[in-house]
Amino acid sequence: MHKIVFLDRDSLIATLRPPAFAHDWRDYPATAPDQVLERLRGATIAVTNKVVLRADVIDRLPDLKMVAVAATGTDNVDLAACRARGIAVANIRNYSLVSVPEHCFTLMLALRRNLRAYVADVEAGRWEHSNRFCLLDHPIGDLAGTRLGIVGFGALGRRVAEIGQAFGMQVCTTSRSPVNEPGVTQLALDELLASSDVVSLHLPLSQQTRHMIGARELGLMKPTALLINTARGGLVHEAALAEALMRRTIGGAGFDVLSQEPPGPNNPLLGLRLPNFILTPHVAWASAGAMQTLADMLVENIEAWESGRPTNTV
């Protein structure tokens, strides 16, 4: 009988059906780093969303056969250690093809239309004292007719491209693989950054992509351009971004992710109070529909592995 342990069950607000094989399932609302080893002792299947599984812990879990990641990103799991032990690792793919792109465009629209500044004006009572029917104190821009640069053209990048085209945006992308989508131009990263009005990141975090957007790259962008990141915080050098926002060398940024989550008090983006910056707490993925899809796929991955036909392995 398999022993299954979900280390951070409270990260997933959805119904989890039991796998269709004999098992003992144990949930923990959350797990601190010093609790991981003890809670996984004897487990054959570990389920984690964001709890880190390091090599030194994995090496001390002789019964562990599978890690089911309740997310797309697997940077919290030492994949090399798992491969060395023959431990299967499966993640969830394409579950948030509605939720994440909608959040991207929520951020884009709010920034292009200066939504934060106008809401603050209303809350401060400025509309009541206006000498005309509306306030026009902040510039408002449309998405139509602007260029959307998508960095990374997987399933999420493609969906963002489709929505961008529906808004009337010109879409370009940079990707390691050839792109043959109608109406999408493939460019080198520097050219994309220099020519786009909105840049949206859709890449996993790796040693190759960490801090791929730093001071040099931000300096290539238009002074009116927006940077949107719903992927991973480590893709962007946060201190460089804070500097660019404060100096207005780019037009604004909308972020749903930070390099450390939950963030520490010294994160340079956390304390920014600027009308051209919006930070949400890693919720782009978390619509009710997306979370239920994730929960269903999580159990399907476990069942597929147990039946000898593993899917979504990394």
Give the rounded overall mean pLDDT: 95
Strand-residue proportion: 15-25%
Helix content, binned percent = 25-40%
Q: Give me the strand/helix succession.
A: EEHEHEHEHHEHEEHEHEHEEH
Query: Using DSSP, what is the number of strands?
Result: 12
Distance between the termini: 25 Å
Order of strands in the sheet with most strands: 8-7-6-9-10-11-12
**Outline:** elongated
Query: Count of helical segments?
Result: 10
User: What is Rg?
Assistant: 22 Å
Class of secondary structure makeup: alpha/beta
Low-confidence stretches: none
Largest sheet: number of strands, sense, barrel closure: 7 strands, parallel
Please give the structural blueprint.
Layout: E1 2-6, E2 23-27, H1 36-40, E3 45-48, H2 55-58, E4 66-69, H3 79-85, E5 88-90, H4 99-112, H5 115-123, E6 147-151, H6 155-166, E7 170-174, E8 184-186, H7 189-195, E9 198-201, H8 215-220, E10 226-229, H9 238-247, E11 252-255, E12 277-279, H10 288-306
Parallel strand pairs: 1-2, 1-3, 3-4, 4-5, 6-7, 6-9, 7-8, 9-10, 10-11, 11-12
Helix pairs in contact: 4-6
Polypeptide structure, described:
- The chain has ten helices and twelve strands.
- With 314 residues, it is of the alpha/beta class.
- The strands form two sheets. Strands 8-7-6-9-10-11-12 form a seven-stranded parallel beta sheet, sandwiched between helices. It has a five-stranded parallel beta sheet with strand order 2-1-3-4-5, with helices on both faces.
- Helix 3 links the parallel strand 4 and strand 5 (88-90).
